Amino acid sequence: MLRLIGTVLLILLSYLLQTSVLGMLPFIQTTPNLLLVITFSIGLLRGKEEGMITGAFCGLFLDLMSGGYLGFYGLIYMYIGFMCGLLYQHIDVDIPLVPIVLCFVCQALYHFYIFIFRFLLRGRLGIGAYLNNIILPELVLTTVIGIFLYGAVMLLNGVLEDYEKRSALKFV
Amino acid sequence: MKRKLKIFLKIKYILMILTIVMLGLVVVTYSMGGSIYSYKNMLSSAISPIRNSIQGIRDFFTGISERNADREELLAEVEALQAENEELRQQISDFSSEKYELNELRDLLNLAQSYSEYSTVGATVIAKNTGNWFYEFTIDKGSEDGIELDMNVLARGGLAGIVTDVGKNYSIVTSIIADDMNVSAVSSTGRDSCIVSGDLELLDEGYIRLMYLPGDASVGEYERIITSTTSSKYLPGILIGYAFNITMDSNELTQSGYLIPAVDFAHLEHVVVIQKTKTSMLQEE
């Protein structure tokens, strides 16, 4: 229960930070994608079930808050959460290179998805310009902020796991 | 082993069901267009006050930093502003006589009123939406303040965008520089019709595309381009930007070029919404 509330609050806070604070800073032209970081962090730390559900929740939340088609972001976030969940317990989550590489891969997937379905299908082919103007700045900024956010999610996860263990012991 | 396989199959099914549900939602929202926006209202209306308070906090901090600015600097600024004020006052008196004349002539010609006479409401930009691919932003006024779908949004006298989603206390505006936006426009002197189209590829250089200008039209460099009367969503006569580098297309029938938007989209903070939609205007007539 505490975990559910914690995760929802985390998503809400990151969303507000992403759109209302970081998105509005005059000296940063790009917005980091914090919800994607949360999705892959939870997938990596908690497995494919939770990754999938968190991703679907984040994506649908974004869909609800924007003017686009409902379910469009939901799909890609859900699959990213699921795929990162496949790595659960297969790799060491404490190595700092892991979140950096994963953040990079997830961002690439996400942008590729948007490019194909919202641009390529309309006959817009300028991938070079998009790469320069949109994808790369967002990728770099998200990776930089993502390392810290990943650390925060890991800390929160540790606290919650301790709490769950203690309450399980009490129950016995 | 068997149990593990079972769990794996189970999550696969859930994934499949969720995928089908989301694809279904995409299809439903695509086919219904803008008519089912009300379902979003509850969630977004709850978020909006938090956003407003974040905006308030930001204003507070900018206020502090401004208050601590150098005194000398401020005095110089006051002087400059006073001079400007004097100049503007002079201009107003010039303009008011010209406006009187303009109204007289308009009455004679029986022309529709210019957009400056529509009732407007000011709004503050409180969030930039979902990622960097789509140029949408959220403003702090909604249906409670009389904002409706398809109302035009201006900033500093130029067309900034159009309202694409309305909630109780917020609305989402899609700007004209978004990649899938098209505005039908005319040149201000020759009244040659053309299409202004957002293009993400050019955005970094600070301009967007201008297309389908008739081959025989002559549009001067940096001529004002305004919204056309034939547009179904945009009110006529609003400044969009300035055309430049117009060249003949290879088909020898149309011309195309670029347009510098009148609005500075990188630093958008306050906007004005015209409280009249094109459809309601047409119905009145």
Described by the principal axes of the CA atoms, the overall outline of chain B is: globular
From the N-terminal CA to the C-terminal CA of chain A, the straight-line distance is 19 Å
Indicate the low-confidence ranges of chain B by residue numbers. none
How many distinct domains of chain A?
1
Number of domains of chain B: 2
Q: How much strand of chain A?
A: under 5%
Largest interface: A-B, 46 and 49 residues
Q: Return the string of H and E elements of chain A.
A: HHHHHH
Total of DSSP H or I helical runs spanning 4+ residues of chain A: 6
Tell me about the biggest sheet of chain A? none
Largest sheet of chain B: 6 strands, antiparallel, barrel
Note the total helix count of chain B. 4
Short description:
The complex is a heterodimer of chains A (172) and B (285). Chain A is 77% helix and 0% strand.
Offer a few descriptive terms.
heterodimer, A: 172 residues, mainly alpha, Arp2/3 complex 21 kDa subunit ARPC3, B: 285 residues, alpha+beta, Thrombin, subunit H, 4 helices, 36% helix
Please characterize this protein's 3D structure.
- The complex is a heterodimer of chains A (172) and B (285).
- Chain A is an all-alpha fold and 172 residues long.
- Chain A has one domain (2-25, 32-171): Arp2/3 complex 21 kDa subunit ARPC3.
- Chain A has helices at residues 2-21, 34-46, 48-65, 72-85, 97-119, 127-171.
- In chain A, helix 2 crosses helix 5 (97-119).
- In chain A, 45% of the residues are buried.
- The mean pLDDT of chain A is 86.
- Chain B is globular.
- Chain B has helices at 2-32, 41-67, 71-109, 278-284, and strands at residues 120-128, 136-139, 152-155, 158-166, 171-175, 182-187, 193-197, 208-214, 223-227, 239-248, 254-261, 270-274.
- The termini of chain B are far apart.
- Chain B folds into two domains: 67-109; 118-278, Rod shape-determining protein MreC, domain 1 (Thrombin, subunit H).
